[in-house]
Fold this sequence. Notes:
Helix content: under 10%
Distance between the termini: 25 Å
Number of domains: 1
Number of helices: 0
Strand content: 25-35%
Amino acid sequence: xxxxxxxxxxxxxxxxxxxETVIIGVAxxxxxxxxxxxxxxxxxxxxxIVFGCQVTSGETPVVGxxxxxxxxxxxxxxxxxxxxxxxxxxxxxxxxxxxxxxxLIDDPANTWAEHANVECILxxxxxxxxxxxxx
Length: 135
């Protein structure tokens, strides 16, 4: 999950596709939100961190999308057994997007197709100036 600065100064899950969001990093662990009160989550705040993400249904990335931008579309609660996020990418293309695709994750079963697993880098981050729309 991408983590952003919330309205009250705390951290929260970054809003899907929002160009208004100030992303501060990637959640380093899974924490079940309490019914009330505050909890803490570790955040990898390196603006150059490379992380993996799956492309959502209906999007079929191609090799030409490498270094193109994408927004996060799906923010479902993560899996409490495997601790895997359910964040997915959508609206692949150029322009000011939340992340930039670096390529396919190296796995023999992974291909340039719907639900591809891709390596990403943050395109919008508190500590970054604006990255170019394409490289």
